[in-house]
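Annotated sample (chain length 131).
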Amino acid sequence: MALKLIYLTVRQLFAWALLSRRDAVAKDVEILLLRHQLAVAQRRTPARDLQGRLTWADRAWLALLAGLLPKHRLEHLRLIVSPSTLLRWHRDLLRRRWAYCSRRKRPGRPPTHHRIRALVLRLARENSSWG
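Output written by the structure step:
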């Protein structure tokens, strides 16, 4: 029994040492991620499972926070979804953002300038043998 207590004490000391080595931003992100998970888990919807409780905003928030953490840290957290799912959501968010930014303002071919159009029509009238 004493050996187990010593083992747990040493293990806890090493855990605290590792925790103090991590920078404060990673700790804050991890705390926010876990708090949001707790808020989602505390919602009362008896008819649906946990995946059904996640709204688009929840998924976006979890994906954003998961994207800020290194992958090896995500694997050691107790998450309500798998780390690969969080990373997939993060990739989807980035893909949607860049697709939105790079979309054209108006679909289709841009309009031809009126001077060029007039020139082409004039040349077509003057040279009917061109085809």
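Annotation: Residues 11-101 form one domain.
Annotation: The mean pLDDT is 79.
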